[in-house]
Amino acid sequence: MTARSSEFPHNPYCPYFQQAVELIGRRWTASILRALFAGNERFTDIAKTVPGLSHRLLTERLEELREAGLVTIEPGIKHGTYRLTERGADLRRVFAELEDWNARWYEADQQNLEPSAT
Amino acid sequence: MTARSSEFPHNPYCPYFQQAVELIGRRWTASILRALFAGNERFTDIAKTVPGLSHRLLTERLEELREAGLVTIEPGIKHGTYRLTERGADLRRVFAELEDWNARWYEADQQNLEPSAT
Lengths: 118, 118
Prior knowledge:
Number of strands of chain A: 2
Number of helices of chain A: 6
CATH superfamily of chain A: Winged helix-like DNA-binding domain superfamily/Winged helix DNA-binding domain
Oligomer: homodimer
Order of helices and strands of chain A: HHHHEEHH
Shape of chain A: globular
Largest sheet of chain A: 2 strands, antiparallel
């Protein structure tokens, strides 16, 4: 049942893995989760953290996250309050690894903005 | 420059983070990377690991990964040989965390296939 990093990957293809990565890879979803990790709970506060994210799309994305069991919604007068479930909060470890990866390779990014001539 | 997990997240919104997560979240991309992590290098071998992945789409995804600096392509007679760059291989740590997360919550998944009645 438990997958240890040292043995990764057992099978190159895993539908659950593909499903999870596509969920968090959808446009703005990761940024919405990051807003929740940072302690934002109110719809309007979450909306403010992501430049260009419409309320319609935020509503849709939060509903996807609720369906996936990553957030709970507490109805409010205008918009609800959103909280990470234990499962959603546990994704923070994945995000922290990706943040670290990004930081490690940021300089390389800056030096390779042009596609290499291979 | 370096992002430490303990301080995560500094800013809820980070365009580099959003870009990275969208890249690996594209349909099949994570599964293609997993095939590479597992040691597959030949186009046809990679194609075989992902059920239903067309050669056309695999070509497109591998080209995206090359442009992002995650794989190199060595041309072959029919199809090329693909290798992870140091940067691409470094993503394994992120994938291992996501694999672990999936394993931890797999049972909950099985118990919550129906959307909860909130």
